[in-house]
Amino acid sequence: MGPPLVLGLSRDCAARRPCMPSCSGRQPATLSAPRDRTQPLRSVKTRISADASIGPFSPVAVEVPSSASPTATWSIEAMDDDLFLSTPASMSSSKPLRINLDLKLYRARLARMQAALAVDPEAKRQLLRQAEASLRTCLALDSSDARGYVVLGKLLVQQKRYDEARKLYADGTTATGNTSPYIWAAWGYLESLTGNVSRARKLFDAAIVVDATHAAAWHKWGMLEMRQGNYLRARDLWTSGISKCRRVKSRSNTYLYCSLAVMAAELGKLSEARAWFQEGTRMAEGRASCALWHAWAMTEARLGDPSAVRWAGHGCGLQQRTAAGHAAVV
User: Fold this and answer.
1) How far is it, in rounded angstroms, from Cα 191 to Cα 207?
2) Of 81, 124, 212, 249, whose CA is between 20 and 30 Å from 202?
3) To the nearest 10°, the Cα dihedral for 201, 204, 210, 211?
4) DSSP 327
């Protein structure tokens, strides 16, 4: 086992609440000599008797110089601001904490979105460089995390650095053992964007083989076929995606219903379009999707039915009010 965790206490907190004597009347231990900062640290456990009072500021383990006597006693005030939260030595070479990667990825995504909306070219370039540096740091910390490859790939595609994005996705599939549908789907979208249709189909198929409930892969593949004029193929892909994703409640995607309905309306199949809209809005996710309600309203507006437009618009407004009320309660 590695050394125990060390509880931290700031200088101000220690000054406000000095160590109190225990129930047994013992006085707190004091430091015999100031710490030599040039000496390495080692972890030792503080002995606590059965009758001693253990409060929120009672030390469980402290760090002391390795040159100190094993029998020396140390107090919280003595260690002062040298106390810190440390991890066991056995974990020092393992992967970083998940929360650290999450924060870095969140900041990188935020910088990428801000760059897409930036007007000043210099500010845009600075945000893109900042996001790229942060994402490459995430990949260096944990090369098996697929999120870093996907977000960095989108950043490279945003800058039209397609060859670099292809190489990144290839490295990502290798690093993740070909088990991430997100990388396969993102790679397929890149190929469809650059006109490599046959290559994109293979990549979308790989994403679905890895995870048949990956709605984004079904949707992107269907959009590719629709743009190629293969409407029946696109319809089959989207209905298959709905059937597969329906088995896992958290994987249902309202955009599959929305794309099916909009394509049916554009092909003149109005009854089928309304049926897909109705089925999509009966689901909990579809009922809360403003995009689905808005697409239905726009479809009815093109057909010249104002009453249906108002009804569909009411559904979108109800969803927005429900979300605002939930946010106020939270």
Assistant:
1) 14
2) 249
3) -130
4) H
Give me 164's structure tokens.
């670099």
Rank 93-97, 142-146, 299-303, 310-314 by mean pLDDT and report only the highest: 142-146
Instruction: Extract the tokens encoding 159.
Output: 């800058």
- Is the Cβ–Cβ distance between 84 and 6 less than 8 Å? yes
CB 136 within 8 A of CB 152: yes
Under 8 Å between Cβ of 203 and 234: no
Cβ contacts of residue 41 below 8 Å, gap of 6+?
Answer: 63, 64, 65, 66
At 116, give phi and psi (nearest 5°).
-65, -25
224-283 pLDDT tens trace: 999 999 999 999 999 999 999 888 776 668 899 999 999 999 999 999 999 999 999 888
Helix axes 215-227, 254-266, angle to 10 degrees: 20
Q: Residue 131 and residue 134: Cα distance in Å, rounded?
A: 5
Q: What is the pTM of this model?
A: 0.65
What is the Cα–Cα distance from 157 to 162, expressed in whole angstroms? 6
Structure tokens at 293: 């309600």
248: which DSSP letter? Answer: S
Q: Is 64 helix (H, G, I), strand (E, B) or coil?
A: strand
Alpha-carbon span 88 to 10, nearest angstrom: 21
Residue 17 backbone dihedrals phi, psi, to 5 degrees:
-125, 90
Distance from C-alpha of 260 to C-alpha of 252, rounded to nearest angstrom:
14
